[in-house]
Amino acid sequence: MPHTLPAQPGMALADVDTPALLLDLDAFEHNLQRLNESLAGRKLMLRPHAKSHKCPQIALRQIALGAVGVCCQKVSEAEAMVEGGVPDVLVANEVVGAAKLRRLAALAKQAKVTVCADDAGNVRDIDAAAREFGVTIDVLVEVNVGANRCGVEPGEPALGIAQAIAACKNLRYAGLQAYQGGAQHLRKVDERRAAIAAAVDGVQRTLALIAKAGLPRGKVTGAGTGTYLFEAASQVYDELQVGSYIFMDADYAKNDWTESGIPRFEHSLFVWTTVMSRTRPDVAIVDAGLKASSVDSGMPRVADFPQAEFLKASDEHGVIRLNGASGFALGDKIRLIPGHCDPTVNLYDHYVCVRGARVEALWPITARGAVW
Question: Class assignment of domain 13-21+266-364?
Fold first, then answer.
């Protein structure tokens, strides 16, 4: 089946066929700068999460502005980043299984590679793969700081994994992975602040035990778009893993940012969709449904018509109640703000990068579908 590109540089936005994934370059570049400005004067490293964008072109732009590298969630995602020219990747996740570990070790011959672990047996397996490929791999202990997903408990359990890493000849104990993912979408600022304070407490207790055991401190890495200035202010975190700030989806927009210090980033990612049916007076049907926008965090928002409401999605259709909004004639094209940017990006092969009303570039989403 021939594969048609969604757009060409230089064409008018109005001529871009739908559904398409739009990246507003002005808003995107503004977000990159705002993050850097918010961290000015702080001795912190920035390692943005590439699972949000899955695009080496974006990763390289982040690195050009000072990021030390990127985070990935899967080995295949890390491979796509390294093949795209990214020199330093952290797989901020556990990697289990001989095939994946051999790929991870092979990748460490091409770039600096770090991985997380929360199990002593897995540590030994990582060491064996590193030995087979003649490489040394940095390993972080993943500490459960409240997300209750992966990670050992703070304190003695985390120390035990750190000691297991330090005992391996082909591994280097590199510090702690301490990401509180559950805090990112807590709506109230005080709730997010309290969640990070609890995470910091667990990290501090763990660092004290690590120092007492004679191990190097290593780095503490974590944080996300909803909380990163709280981690930055803790004087415990060394590296920040923000990701969604470049796009700002509809769910993040529901957070209260008042008095958090965290800037209000702009929406830069949109699903471009066409009105395909108007058989009812206050309802428009568009051609962007479940296969065009992830709804795990709620329905998309209609970007330029605040009173219009995206009610529901089926495979190929979206239902919008207009609530008196004008326009929406058959064939009209509109922008939707995805509810959750990461899985929405994974539905597309390209970003259609626009500046104003014209296409400036197409950036391939190289790590689309990289889930193994």
Answer: mainly beta
Q: Could you write out the three-class secondary structure of 133-166?
A: HCCCEEEEEEECCCCCCCCECCCHHHHHHHHHHH
Domain residue spans of the chain: 13-21+266-364, 39-247
Q: What is the pTM of this model?
A: 0.95
CATH superfamily of domain region 39-247: Alanine racemase (3.20.20.10)
Q: At residue 89, does pLDDT exceed 80?
A: yes
Which helix (H) or strand (E) segment holds residue 25: the answer is helix 25-38
Residue 71 has pLDDT above 50, yes or no: yes
Q: Please report the pLDDT score of residue 4 as a whole number.
A: 81
- Give the count of beta carbons closer than 10 Å to the beta carbon of residue 111: 17
- Identify the band that residue 6 occupies on the pLDDT scale cut at 50, 70 and 90: confident
Q: Which of 45-76 are b and which e, b meaning 16 or more Cβ less than 10 Å from the residue's Cβ?
A: ebbbbbbbbbbbbbbbbbbeeebebbbbbbbb
Instruction: Say if residues 326 and 311 touch (Cβ distance below 8 Å).
Output: no
Report the Cα 53 to chain-centroid distance in Å. 7
C-beta neighbour count of 133 within 10 angstroms: 17
